[in-house]
Amino acid sequence: MGESKVENRFKGSYLGAIFLMAITAIGPGFLMQTTVFTQKTGASFGFVILASLVIDILVQINVWRIIVASGMRGQEIGNTVLPGLGYFISILIVMGGLCFNIGNIAGASLGLNVLFGTPIEAGAISSGIIALSIFCFKQIGKIMDSFVSSFGIVRILLAVFVAIAAMPPVGEAVVKSFVPDQIDVVALITLIGGSVGGYITFSGGHRLLDAGIKGLKFIPQATRSAISGILITGVMRVVLFLGALGVIVHGHFIDPANPAASVFQAAAGNIGYKLFGIVIWSAGTTSVIGCAYTSVSFLKSFSKKVDEYYSKIIIGFIIFSTIVFVMVGQPVKVLVVVGTINGFILPLALASILVGAYNKKVVGEYKHPVWMTVTGVLVVAIMGYMSVRTFINQFLM
Predict the structure, then answer these.
(1) What is the pTM of this model?
(2) Rounded to the nearest 10 degrees, what angle do helices 11-25 and 2-9 cross at?
(3) For residues 85 and 79, is the Cβ–Cβ distance under 8 A?
(4) 292 Cα distance to chain centroid
(5) Contact between 210 and 71 (Cβ < 8 Å)
(6) Is the dihedral of CA 208, 211, 215, 217 positive or negative?
(7) Cα 41 versus chain centre, distance
(8) Cα–Cα dist 209/221, whole Å
(9) CATH number belonging to domain 2-396
């Protein structure tokens, strides 16, 4: 009975953490990347989605379990494992979060442009104001959870409608998901970086800690929650992939200036185009909120003052991201690139968490399952190798 009461007490917090991680991952970059890579690799992109889904689950169950078991944030675990490592990871994640948030603002501004013809700069400023307004309230956690969850559900339902309207070759997609004609390494790195890379790796785990969920008794539910969050992102990725594949197979034109919008418009006409506006605006705005919340949580290790001014720092983070985007522009290019950037952070962050799982100063008496450690190490090795290979191919050759 006691455990049941505990579960009920934290039910909303678990759901909030699930949706914060999942819906933050399903940002505007997620929409653009899926369309761009489906256009490039066709039905074989299904294999990349399947592979990234498996890797995402392995990453998140390792991270969520160890964070909840230790009651420590990612950067605190890093500093315990190796003095200064947590600070280094924090700097990388905050920098990556800024890049990601610039992309999120870009997506939100595109959404308002589609819906109302709002100029990109004005759309960015308006969306930034809406996002930061949530952090002006005292009950930040509950308001954020409700906002992110509600818009996340709407987004998935609209995407399902468009996927059905696109009439994709489902049979071919299923076959190529297991027997692809080609495997695009850059696409895999970008997808993983966009769904569990950088700050997203820790968004759900840190949200649980803020809700007071920590200790061995919470580990089973934390594990289930981590898997649930990844499955939500997987459903959305598959739905978007099928929609894009249907449009491409039927020979519709994909506008390189706004590829995801082309998919929605080709599948459902002008109504689809407006639905895209709703989807990408909500994706951008909710991701701005989740990105700012989690990125700033990494600054807590630098000074106790961060806790005191947490909301104000988050607001400043959002304002800075908005200003940079208004100055830089090029929303579609920004959205695709940021996922690749965050893919480089994942191997180091996950490695520090796995080492922490065997440090009693971090986890106490908690025993991390061997199979999770082994698969986690494999993910670190694979992602590390692919990140280096991608960097060499993209920038040195």
Answers:
(1) 0.84
(2) 40
(3) yes
(4) 12
(5) no
(6) negative
(7) 22
(8) 13
(9) 1.20.1740.10
